[in-house]
Amino acid sequence: MPILTILIAWPAVTGLLLLVVPQLRAWAREFAIGASVVELALVVALVAAFDRSQAGAIQFSEIHSWIPQIGASWALGVNGIGLSLIVLSALLVPIVIAAGWKEDDAAPRRAQYLGLVLVSESFMVGIFAARDVFLFYVLFEAMLIPLYFLIGSFGGQQRRYAAVKFLIYSLVGGLVMLVAVIALYFQGPGGDHAFLTMNLTGLTFDPWVGRLLFLGFFVAFAIKAPLVPVHTWLPSVAESARVGTTTLLVAILDKVGTFGMLTLCLTLFPAASRWAAPFIIVLAVISVLYGAFAAIGQDNMYRLVAFTSVSHFGMIVLGIFAFRQTSIEGATFYMVSHGLSTGALFLMVGFLEARHGTVSVKAFGGLQKVVPVLAGTFLIVGLSALALPGMSPFASEIMVFIGAYPAAKVATIVAILGVVLAALYILLTYQKLFTGPTPKAMESTKDLNLRERLVVWPLIVAMLVLGIVPALALDYLKGPSAGIVAIVSQEAGK
Amino acid sequence: MSLLALAKGANTHDYSLAGDSIWIVIIKAVLILVFLLTSVLFAVWFERRVIGRLQERPGPNRHGPFGLLQSVMDAMKLLFKEDITVRASEKLLYILAPMISVFAALLTFAVIPFGPATRIPFTMEVTPLQLTDFPVAMLYVLACSAIGVYGIVLGGWASGSTYPLMGAVRSTAQVISYELAMGLSLVTVFMFAGSMSLTDIVNAQHNVWWVLPLLPAFVLFVISMVGETNRLPFDLPEAEGELVAGFMTEYSSMKFAWFFLAEYMNMINVSAIASTLFLGGWRPLWAESWPGYEMLSNGIFPPLWLIAKIWFLMFVFVWIRGSLLRFRYEQFMRFGWKVLIPVGLGWIVLWSAGMVLLPHFHYSTSRFTWLAPAIALILAWLVFSSVIEYRREKRLKAAEALHEELEDQEFDAFAGGYPVPPLPGQKLPRSPRAGRTVEAATMHVPTPDTTKEAQDD
Amino acid sequence: MSPINFVYLASVLFAIGAAAVLLRRNAIIAFMGVELMLNAANLTLVSFSRMQGYLEGQVMAFFVMVVAAAEVVVGLAIIITVFRSRQTISLDEPTELKG
Amino acid sequence: MTYPAPDIAWASLTPILIVLGAAALGVLLEAFVRVPAARRIYQFQLSIIAVVAALLAVVWRWVALQGDGVVVLKSMIMLDRQALAWQFLILIFALGGVLLFADKGREGEDAFTPLGSVAPGSAEETVARAKGMYLTEAFPLVLFATGGMMLFATVNDLLFLFVALELFSLPLYILVALSRRRRLLSQEASLKYFLLGAFSSAIFLFGVALLYGATGKTGMYELGGVLATYMPQRSVLILLGVFMVVVGLLFKIGAVPFHFWVPDAYQGAPSPVTAFMAAATKAAAVAALARLSYLVLFRLAWELNWIIWTVAIASMVFGTVLAIVQTDVKRMLAYSSIAHAGFILVAFAGFSPSALSALPFYMATYGLATLGAFAVITQVREVTPDGAIGAEATRLGQWAGLGKRSPLLAVSMMIFLLSFAGIPLTAGFIGKFVAFRAAIEAGAWPLVLVAVLASAAAAFFYIRLAVLMFFTDAPTDVAPHVVIRSTTLGRGVAIAMAIAVIVLGVFPSWALELAHSAGVLLAPAIGG
Amino acid sequence: MNPYVPIIVMIVIAGALAVVGLVASAFLGPKRYNSAKLDRYESGLMPTPEAAGGGRVPIKYYLVAMTFIIFDIEVVFLYPWAVAYGSLALFGFIAVMTFLALITIPFIYEWRRGGFDWE
């Protein structure tokens, strides 16, 4: 059974139905959440069918000829990393839909929004499952369109600006990658399946050709997983877009960048990766510090969370380009954990915004007494972001540092500073929001209702479970990471 | 020039003109000019004289025998007249225009053959009686006549005055319209001769003058040559009643004389061309088998034959002028475009179809060359008579319809604020004088015959 | 006289025509410049044809003449319509289109 | 002496003959059918039948073709699959064009002035409009242009190329001047287009004359054969000739610095004409340039490459930058077409053989999207003060909120814009992919890098229009109001093109296969 | 001698004659100008500042000019064929007839559309 194709097709079909069929509009929310839960169920089935002992190998492979003239195939398959990210996507989408249940929209607009969310989910699953560079690229670029509409149509004042900025950044990266993709074709074996990653792995390039190709890919991924010089779109989008969009974007989509670095940059161009690693590690460390510092100065909570993400992505990239088994494992684990924690954090900010229509830190204060559950939840989520031991981000961060230290001592030490800074901004924010005297306007704040709890708590539970028993996830991540390390280091041996 | 090779392929005769020395060329050129100028002087007298006779009056008869010196006197008078350059004119073009006209008119005769190779009296030089000839001589002739148009249009425009402008554009439109018909009439001649050299064309007529087998083309040519030279009945550009003197209105003295000269020279030119193309050129009206042919086609005789033919055509010009009324402009243009050009095309198709298809199916074309004009005439008669009949019926119907429409309408003598005649069918008001006398009371009010008027349209 | 001289002449004519199109602001003059260029090309074709002793160049000149004539018809028609709407055929004058 | 009649493979010419014959028939219809409304219907039917029949004929030739191609008339016309592919494309564009030409709103007005010869705003014009006259000559004209383009894409002889060039240009000059609304603009555009077009074709012709002088040939195969052996003493003449010929073609493609006519002509012409012209002219010109390139120019690759690179980069940069500052939709698309001319030239860089199949595909994607985009433009109208439907609303601001008024049209337009921008899952992406692949294959990757950066910048203005349509509310207080005309044909063409663009974007395999088999030029050995 | 040389001789002589005539009359005639003489002729009316219609040619004449061009082209192609029709045989005939037919189409068009009607 072509389960991966079904996983991609199901949200696409349901999403398009929602966009096109006017009769569905009245029941858009119910329809959408139903569809996403079905998707989640399918993903659970996928996980069940996945052979954990062979996590490093590609499973559920499907390869069909698509455009043989340009060597493109409809090639899908997942290893442990892809699987975990698909799980993350499938988990977050219903949560996001549920979180936005009460957004006051007219029915057609709501149908549009939910339809686009579902279509985006289809693209996300597709990207994580793609085993063909061309297919990967197509989905990578095409995904911009629903996202562009999600950002530009729904959200705050600056949303149009943010949408265009997002699109242009992504497009520049994507098109540079296109050049590399085309050039890669001529380096590879050619033929009807020229773009299959397995056909392209293990090629030997002329050094500069390899480096240029690597850069072509890396630029695109660096923009997507915002590394410092090209990160500016993320805060803009985060503050303008609707919270659900931002959650999806940061928690899942940006992982496409790091996922791409792992599965394409490192795998296809190991020599070039090693050549570029020192620079990239420097960039990563700068990201960690810059993101953290910038977060401290933010008043807008969306921007704040966005900057923390920039910081965290720096750590992930550091882990990836340290080329150690532990660091890569940690980085992949961190990708999942970060998805859970940042997602939760954005949702919490969204709940606050829903209550008072503002996300300015200054506007709040002393909420601890009024809404204890909310405050508590926020604290836990916040602590997860600053990597409190016992939560999964902590486990992954530790693994990254331990793994990276032998490879890049100074960089790792500097990056650990980022953790300290994280503690600073999270606690400062918590302090401003929830402690001190309660302003008049805040006194009538409602606490988390059942829907909101149902939305956030599962994420917290997941983080806790994974924090305590990281093996649950690491079993899936170890194999693939080992494979990547093997490729990179085997190349080094030559 | 591009026709060079084609023509050579078809016709390989020796142009003995190549042997002429430059002096002979100059002498011949001067002789041609002298001939042209005297011919014009003669033509002016000739026209006035013949017209006079046609109108039963004497014509010029004061100066010299039969008034022959009249035109010499006229020319002298023009030379000594005051030369006025109109203030509103574009000076350069205004002066250039008559020069262009006369210049173009002088050139045509360079390629007209007056006769075969002849010994120049008192010398041993043998030379054809023709200034020069080349394979595309007819194109040269057409080119010269086209340059002549510039004289007219520039003269009219540069005068900066209404009548000359109108005259010039009319004249230009007329000349180019009729030039097309003329051009089409030439095609069958070229087919017959297989060359565009005038010598070849004359030589090819040794059996028969082409006026017979190519009769329709000849008729076409004659009509269009009258149109081309702005002569009655096609003299619209200088219709005195409408445009004073057309494009020449603002010209005086020698400038006027050049236009005048050019016009008469053009008449002589086209007559010479028509003679050469259709009337055998310098060939005598004498069968080859008849005695004396040799003498009549050599020495002084060929030029005389040609001149005789030219003057015959000149007489036709004058004759037409004396007999026909001027066309209205729209009638004239319609005639050119809707009759002459289709006829010309039809004739080409008919003729070439016969000449190409008959040999293709292995029939001889000798009889067809004689039958073709007859076929053409019959076809033309069928087409035109039916068209005329059809249009007459249509007009009658339209007149009837109008009649019915206006039936019983009260006649308004001042419809639209102007005095108008009664339209057919309109009821005439009772005359104020009616009833005064018995005759008046019973008088039949005549209906104007408007049907007839409509037909003239 | 060698036909190559005609080629030089044609080149000069072509240059004059091109200059007329590029420099003169009157549509009719510019249009005449174009015609001059076409005829210069014609002259070139014929001269080269003469030099090489093949007739193709001359036949081509015929085709070019036809095309040039058609172009004259279309061009004049366009210029006249513009003139009738605006009472001017200066190429600088029409300013509906900018940017 | 009898000249032998040349051998002509008439069957191979059927598509062209059908179109040109129908055009001639159309002129006769004009002459004999007196009632304008009836004439309009007849002309429309005739044109559609002709174009469809020609399409079928092209398919028939494609199927019947054996080997690389057929020699139709010595070396002047040789019908190969490449030529058939271009003919097919041009006919498809013509079909769309004719449908748009016939598009007539409920108010009874099509895109053309009822009387082309009278001055705008004159009494005669008012009368003609009141009488409901139609300028039905547009149909024969477009057929003539189509025939000329098909010929242009087929012939192998430079002089014949010139004749075909004029055959399709002259009707276009006239068509551009015939807009029903904004006639001054239209006439002025026509004048500019004409003067520049005539200028460039004169340059082209002089180039041909020089090549003829240098080599004694005008056939492309023969020229290529001559150029294979280098002749130093004549090289200046050859280079100059080739350069001028290329300039003539680049003009028709609309590449910088020969692009001046493009914005004016696109903006001034009636939108159906713009649609047809933008798609088909470019296709025909690219076809000719491709043929010339792979038969002749590649011999001079070393001398010519820098020109192609310069022109391509200039076109992409200028087209994109100037498009960004435009405030008129048609003008914006015009500048975008200049940028696209640059992208097309990228494929030529290095003369990679795969460009021969990439180009038809690229032009198919570009042409379909262009046709569709202009079809949408015909639908967005201003309201005249008396409440009737007026001129096209082409100012960018007037497109605000289109997504709400007419989601279908807006989405179609969006798809076209995405295709122009080269976003995956639209045809434009695959087109760019194959074109760029050809360039990279020949080692021109720096050029491709410039191209992708330009397309990213270009995306900015495409997206800006999308922003207006979907994210901005229509201003309610601004006069004139904007309405959606929503005519069957215009809408139908837009939607059909949108579907085509998506299909070619998602399942391009079959089309690429066809393009691949079209990527062959017939090159029989010809003496000399 | 080249057959075109006599033409040049003719051109020189004819041109000289045309010029000499005008120059002679300029010397021979009287010169007593006045304003009325230098004004343009208006059949006795007061002369207007410029010719009717601003000295421009009526549009209708352009139509004649354009039609003329079409047919002149036709003639251009007919003449070479006429000279060599024998050797071009049936193929040439059919080609030229097709050409004529095609030329006739615009002719008919213009005829029916009133291009040859002058009011």
UniProtKB/TrEMBL annotation, chain A:
> What are the TM regions of this chain, as residue ranges?
6-24, 31-50, 70-101, 113-130, 136-154, 166-188, 208-227, 248-269, 275-297, 304-325, 331-352, 373-391, 411-433, 454-473
Which Pfam families has this protein been placed in?
Answer: Proton_antipo_M
Q: Which residues form the NADH:quinone oxidoreductase/Mrp antiporter transmembrane domain?
A: 130-419
Record flagged with keyword Transmembrane helix:
yes
InterPro entries of this UniProt entry?
Answer: NADH_Q_OxRdtase_chainM/4, NADH_UbQ_OxRdtase, ND/Mrp_TM
Which GO MF terms does the UniProt record name? NADH dehydrogenase (ubiquinone) activity; NADH dehydrogenase activity; ubiquinone binding
The alphabetized UniProt keywords are:
Membrane, Transmembrane, Transmembrane helix
* Localization terms from the record: Endomembrane system; Membrane
Q: Does the keyword Transmembrane helix apply?
A: yes
Q: What are the recorded Gene Ontology BP terms?
A: ATP synthesis coupled electron transport; electron transport coupled proton transport
PANTHER family named in the record: NADH-UBIQUINONE OXIDOREDUCTASE CHAIN 4
- State the similarity comment: Belongs to the complex I subunit 4 family.
Q: What is this protein called?
A: NADH-quinone oxidoreductase subunit M
Species for this entry: Demequina lutea
Source organism phylogeny:
Bacteria, Bacillati, Actinomycetota, Actinomycetes, Micrococcales
UniProtKB/TrEMBL annotation, chain B:
User: Which Pfam families does this entry report, sorted A to Z?
Assistant: NADHdh (PF00146)
Mention one GO biological process in which this protein takes part, according to its record. Answer: aerobic respiration
Any GO MF annotation of the entry: NADH dehydrogenase activity
Q: Does the keyword Isomerase apply?
A: no
Q: What does the UniProt keyword field contain?
A: Cell membrane, Membrane, NAD, Quinone, Translocase, Transmembrane, Transmembrane helix, Ubiquinone
Q: Where does the record locate the signal sequence feature?
A: none
Recorded catalytic reaction(s): these are: a quinone + NADH + 5 H(+)(in) = a quinol + NAD(+) + 4 H(+)(out)
Q: Region Disordered: which residues? A: 422-457
Query: Which family does the UniProt entry place this protein in?
Result: Belongs to the complex I subunit 1 family.
> What does the annotation say about its assembly with partners?
NDH-1 is composed of 14 different subunits. Subunits NuoA, H, J, K, L, M, N constitute the membrane sector of the complex.
Please name the HAMAP family in this protein's record: NDH1_NuoH
This one is known as NADH-quinone oxidoreductase subunit H
Instruction: Tell me what organism the protein belongs to.
Output: Demequina lutea
TrEMBL record, chain D:
Entries under Pfam families matching the protein? Proton_antipo_M
Q: Secretion signal: which residues?
A: none
Tell me if Zinc is a UniProt keyword of this record: no
Look up the record and give one Gene Ontology term from the biological process aspect. Answer: ATP synthesis coupled electron transport
Origin superkingdom: Bacteria
User: Could you describe the subunit structure of this protein?
Assistant: NDH-1 is composed of 14 different subunits. Subunits NuoA, H, J, K, L, M, N constitute the membrane sector of the complex.
NCBIfam families xrefs: NDH_I_N (TIGR01770), PRK05777.1-4 (NF004441)
Q: Which GO terms describe its cellular component?
A: endomembrane system; plasma membrane
Q: Which gene encodes it?
A: nuoN
Q: Where are the transmembrane segments?
A: 12-32, 44-63, 83-102, 134-153, 159-179, 191-215, 235-261, 273-294, 306-325, 332-352, 358-377, 408-431, 443-471, 492-512
- Mode of membrane association: Multi-pass membrane protein
EC code(s) of this entry: 7.1.1.-
Q: Name one GO molecular function term.
A: NADH dehydrogenase (ubiquinone) activity
**Where is it localised?**
Cell membrane; Endomembrane system; Membrane
Q: Which reaction is the catalytic activity of this chain?
A: a quinone + NADH + 5 H(+)(in) = a quinol + NAD(+) + 4 H(+)(out)
InterPro entries in the record: NADH-Q_OxRdtase_suN/2, ND/Mrp_TM
The family line of this record is: Belongs to the complex I subunit 2 family.
Which residue numbers delimit the NADH:quinone oxidoreductase/Mrp antiporter transmembrane domain?
156-455
The entry's protein name is NADH-quinone oxidoreductase subunit N
Q: Which UniProt keywords apply?
A: Cell membrane, Membrane, NAD, Quinone, Translocase, Transmembrane, Transmembrane helix, Transport
Origin organism of this chain? Demequina lutea
Q: Does the keyword Transmembrane helix apply?
A: yes
Enzyme class, first EC level, given as a word: translocase
Automatic annotation (TrEMBL), chain E:
EC annotation from Swiss-Prot or TrEMBL: 7.1.1.-
Q: What residue intervals traverse the membrane? A: 6-28, 61-82, 88-109
Q: Which reaction does it catalyse?
A: a quinone + NADH + 5 H(+)(in) = a quinol + NAD(+) + 4 H(+)(out)
- Which UniProt keywords are present, listed alphabetically? Cell membrane, Membrane, NAD, Quinone, Translocase, Transmembrane, Transmembrane helix, Transport
What is the enzyme's main class? translocase
Subcellular location(s) of the protein: Cell membrane; Membrane
- Membrane topology listed for this record: Multi-pass membrane protein
**Main localization of the protein?**
membrane
Tell me the Pfam families matching this sequence: Oxidored_q4 (PF00507)
Query: Subunit info?
Result: NDH-1 is composed of 14 different subunits. Subunits NuoA, H, J, K, L, M, N constitute the membrane sector of the complex.
- Put simply, this protein is called NADH-quinone oxidoreductase subunit A
Q: What organism is this sequence from? A: Demequina lutea
